[in-house]
Amino acid sequence: MTLNRSAVLGVALAAVLAPDFATLRAQDGATAAPAQDPHPAVTHKELGRMWPFEHAPVEFFQQAYGFTPTPEWLEAARLASLRYGEWCSASFVSPRGLIMTNHHCARDNVAAVSPEGKDWLTTGFFAKSLEEEVRIPDLTVQQLVAMKDVTAAMNAGLVKDMSEADLARTLEANETKILEEAAAAEKDLMHQVVSLYQGGSYQLYSYKVYRDIRMVGAPDLKIATFGGDPDNFTYPRFSLDFSFVRAWEDGKPADTSMHYFKVKTRGAKEGETVFVTGNPGSTGRLDTVAQMEFLRDIQYPRTIANIDRQLKALRARQEKGEDVRGEILDLENAFKAYTGYLAGLRDVSVMDIKRKAEQELRDKVAAKPELGEKIGDPWKRIEEIAAEKREIVETRRGMNKLQGLAQEEELLKKRVGEAFFAVYGTHLPPDATFTLRLSDGVMKGYAMNGTVAPYFTSLYGLYARNTEFGGQDPFALEPAWLEKLKEMDLSTPYCVVSTCDIIGGNSGSPMINQALEVVGLVFDGNIESLGNRFVYTDTVARTVSVHPAIIVEALRKIYGAGKLADEFEGKGKGY
Q1: Do 256 and 244 reside in the same domain of the chain?
Q2: Nearest CA to 226 among 483, 525, 474?
Q3: Residues 6+ apart with CB under 8 A from 541
């Protein structure tokens, strides 16, 4: 995802807090609900829509969309969703372990399993049988099967005025105990203590881990990365960013018949309610103003400069014949992302919203003497730490103090999180933690550059862009795409945009409808979405997904993978 902050975001943020359930429901074909008090997610829209499954806001969904997900619906969505390795999301899309994710999530996997003398990353690869599926070394996918509140156990033994060192040691000891007890009770699961609301709440997440993952198919690199860095974090878009792997158990494809998403090839209509299930990596929506100012003025400019230096060195190596394509793609993505984050922090409207929200929280804490006594004033100390770090970095004196200040800041963030959780509870979502979340939105285009961006693009646009740039990289196509032009249905939807809330880590997430059908594969955000790292808005910020129809069209007509297309669409078992 990528975000640039410009005048258009200023317009966007002017409406960021405006509740408009009637419009949302009208777009979705529902009747407007009777007037009622708006859900806190509306009055504090800036905190986004990344909901933990254990606290899915059913009342909010009912108000906003006229849709009330049942516990069974939520469980089905959770069990069909996966965490892919240590960096992406994915989902089961067939009853025998077929997994859908992004090409850029599996890019290193494709390179790792390419036989000597073959370059599947460049050419693409699709197995023709189960026997041709290649086991991927050192890759696991994780399925969240249980959640348990462990806040009391994590906070056991904590007392007011503990030293930072004692607090850290106690939290570490408590976490170790919780994990040891969980491992003894459920030996076959992987367990993780997750800090939500910066330590305001803790959950024990337990995962089933699939360890035998095999490469099924991935398109050629040119089409998967079509548009390259110029099109990254933009829309309209034409990257065919998908891949398939399969989970195996006991020497055969895993039986996932009880938990997988079916696919709706024709996708979703404009205005339709959709959801993204995935594992957003990190956001800074609970950061304090002082922390954001430090990122804006000190950390991000230096990070961007460092990435730029690394990119120049890699390009020099590439000119000498080294294959560093993957590293360059990763760093180009990071450069654009951090540039967008920085632009968001430099937007006055963004900072004004943060200042208002922070002051409201501090006022609510101060209005409750018992809470104020417990929490104290962590905001003031964080301001002091930010000032100290700024002086150290700028003067290059006292660098040895940075680690200690960072550790103290982490513990102060816990107190801010406890204050937030005490005031708002689970009515508002916590920051992203690379754990499973449910994000809601609608299919919707947006105003762009004096015109309108449509909610979907089509295959016509791919060939047009290739033509308009003279067939040169990064807008080049492999010969098969040109040779099969007359056979392709050029009206096939290609990419779509929605208002769902995502960030890095959501790559590979399925976008689903109310019927639990896949209607998109998340792979990016538009440039306007990057500032959502700190303040969420959906006026022009959009999630960009691959439409399932173009995946099917490519499988059948370009890659000769009709049996895989049958399995994906649920029209046949597959090969």
Answers
A1: yes
A2: 474
A3: 3, 12, 499, 525, 526, 528, 529, 531, 532
Whose CA is closest to 478, among 88, 52, 121, 126?
121
Distance between the two ends of the chain, CA-based, in angstroms? 35
Which of 210, 236, 265 terminates a domain? The answer is: 210
- Containing H/E element for 338? helix 325-345
Extract the residue ranges of the chain whose pLDDT is less than 70. 1-36
Instruction: Decide if 274 contacts 510 (C-beta within 8 A).
Output: no
Tens of pLDDT, residue by residue over 48-61, are 999 999 999 999 99
How far apart, in whole angstroms, are the C-alpha atoms of residue 543 and residue 529?
A: 8
Domain range holding 338? 289-427
Beta-carbon neighbour count of residue 560 at 10 Å?
A: 13
SS3 helix, strand, coil % of the chain, rounded to 5? 45, 20, 35
User: How far is 207 from 512, CA to CA, in rounded Å?
Assistant: 22
Assess if residue 1 is contained within a domain: no
Cis amide leading into 474 (omega within 30): yes
Residue identified by tokens 């649920």 is 570
DSSP β-ladder status, 517-525 and 262-263: parallel
Whether residue 68 is found in the same domain as residue 115: yes
Of 86, 105, 47, 362, give the one whose Cα is nearest residue 245.
105
Same domain, 449 and 423: no
Claim to verify: residue 127 and residue 261 sit in the same structural domain: yes
Considering only the C-alpha atoms of the chain, give the largest distance between any 2 of them, rounded to a whole number of Å. 73
Per-residue pLDDT at 27: 42
Peptide bond into 57 cis (omega under 30): no
Number of Cβ within 10 Å of residue 155's Cβ equals 17
Both structure tokens of 223:
């089409």
d(CA 246, CA 548): 18
Cα–Cα distances in Å, from 560 out to 223, 373, 495, 523, 563?
16, 67, 22, 24, 9
Whether 372 and 442 share a structural domain: no
Are 531 and 5 in contact, with CB atoms under 8 Å apart?
Answer: yes
Radius of gyration of the chain (CA): 24
CA pair distance 57, 430, nearest whole angstrom? 13
**Tens digit of each residue's pLDDT (9 = 90 or more) over 265-294:** 999 999 999 999 999 999 999 999 999 999
pLDDT score for 35 = 53
Rounded to two decimals, the pTM is: 0.91
- Single residue among 185, 210, 235 that ends a domain in this structure: 210
